[in-house]
Amino acid sequence: MPQLQLIASPQSHAEPAWAVAFNPKRNLLASCSTDKTVRLYSYSLPSSSKPVHQHAFPSASSDKPVIHHVKTIETEHKRTIRSLAWAPSGKTLATGSFDSTVAIWEELDGDGDEGEEEGQEGVYKPKAPTKVSGDVDMDDDDGDEGQGERDVKEWECVTTLEGHESECKTVGWSADGALLASCSRDKSVWVWEVQPDSDFECIAVLMEHSQDVKNLSWHPHEEILASASYDSHIHMQWDDPDGDWCIFQKLHPKLPLSQINIPRSDAAASPSQGQISAYNSLVTALLPTPEEREAETYLNVPPLLEDETVWSLAWSPCGRFLASGGDLGGIRIWARTGNNPDSPFVEIAHTAAHSRSCFTLAWAQGGTLLAAGGLGILASAGADGKIIVWQITTPVSADGAEADAPSKKPKVSIAPIAAIREAHGVADVNCVSWLQREDGGGQGVLASCADDGSVKVWRVVADAE
Fold first, then answer.
1. Lowest pLDDT segment from 33-42, 111-120, 240-249
2. Helices (H), 237-316
3. Where are the domains of the chain?
4. What pTM was estimated for this model as a whole?
5. Is 350 helix (H, G, I), strand (E, B) or coil?
6. What's the confidence (pLDDT) of residue 265?
7. What is the spatial distance between Cα 465 and Cα 281, in angstroms, rounded to a whole number?
8. Which is more confidently placed, 252 or 145?
9. Region (Disordered) spans which residues (predicted)?
10. Is there a contact between 93 and 20 (Cβ–Cβ < 8 Å)?
11. Neighbour tally for 146: CB within 10 Å
12. Strands laid side by side in the 413-420 sheet
């Protein structure tokens, strides 16, 4: 049974860390914080990091990625940097701040670039190759920081986007990088079109939410934008045939909560000691402790009857499904019921997950093969300090095709496969982000950040250590 294995705890922020994001093209991880800085971490993968097949997890005893803090960008934001997002090209970084602005960052071209491989600008390169073993201490990067700083060029704020009247909560790029969206406490969603020479034109301001807009997420293949709000709704937005951005559907969570379904080990008939340990670890992480049960019984707090804030969103890799996380800690799955861009979405699942708000979701390929109904792996985290990894699957027919036609309401299975309590000690976990590479390297590598300012990097491993 898989487990979450900690592989790095690089240098922390001085104040709460709010977001992490892997660069889609380069060996970089970025984080942002209340301290108004962006930290860049460079990683190198062991030569054995490419999986046997696209969805396989590595062994716990296999060589680990090496991660170093290489650059701190002192921004000109006046308040907390709440969100960041890499453009699909990997060359541009957007940051959204509580000062209501969005900043666009690009790496400066300077002298000394000769000899760098394409796509490797700013990547930490050790002077001598070092074998990475399972017992390497990744927590101490002080001795490497200077080397990394010399290898990373300067980053410059090339554009500042203004328009929001209050805190900017989330920024995100469309799949092709042609559009940038931002959302705010001012109840608005802005869509910006990327112009030549780092210029941006606002092409839409959507004011349909009645409360603070907490999150947004672009469809992985189409120009469809989902936004989530304190008003308990998810809005599905697109550029209609007339060329106007509009909402084609408002989603309101309604399904009752289903209890978490903890799967038995695949080797239940004759489990090894490691499999038993992994299963027990999963159960321990997911179920309430005796102390928590006693506290719940003593308090006897009835369930909330009012609507819940929608905190987080994540699209499935195929783009047919959308996951959302709410204030009550559950995870909901929504499915598109047609093949048109504005085909309606329906709520198809609502599973118990966290004991407090689910602040963050991230969905990537991995685990069960597509031919066997695999829809990828979903990571969730939140105010209870847990990180949970879920395997999402859908029924398939004998020929390997989805059993449910797109026009029907599909079925999905949501099963936890790995989890860890107190991932960042007693701190809330604010963001998780998967490493996703075109070559399949680094399968199952996950970054997280928390209220204590810490940034951690994990990986899903196929077996216990």
1. 111-120
2. 273-286, 290-299
3. 3-109+122-298+306-461
4. 0.87
5. strand
6. 56
7. 12
8. 252
9. 110-151
10. no
11. 10
12. 358-364, 374-382, 387-393, 413-420
With a CB cutoff of 8 Å and minimum separation 6, the contacts of 183 are 168, 169, 170, 189, 190, 213, 214, 215, 216, 227
Q: Are 228 and 253 in contact (CB under 8 A)?
A: no
Contacts (Cβ under 8 Å, ≥6 apart) of 26: 90, 119, 120, 121, 122, 123
Longest dimension (CA), the chain: 67
Q: What is the mean pLDDT of the chain?
A: 85
Question: Which amino acid appears at position 241 of this protein?
Answer: P
Amino acid (one-letter) located at 410: P
Q: Which amino acid is at 430?
A: N
CA distance 431 to 379: 10
Residue with structure tokens 């007693």? 426
Q: Given this model, what pLDDT does residue 263 score?
A: 75
40 pLDDT higher than 60: yes
In 23-118, DSSP assigns E strands to 28-33, 37-44, 66-74, 81-86, 92-97, 102-107
Say how many Å lie between the first and final Cα of the chain, rounded: 11
Within 10 A of 399 (CB to CB), how many other CB atoms are there? 6
In 3D, which of 277, 97, 258 has the Cα closest to residue 184? 97
Do residues 379 and 362 touch, judged by C-beta distance below 8 A?
yes
Nearest 5 degrees, angle CA 94-CA 99-CA 102?
20
CATH number of 3-109+122-298+306-461: 2.130.10.10
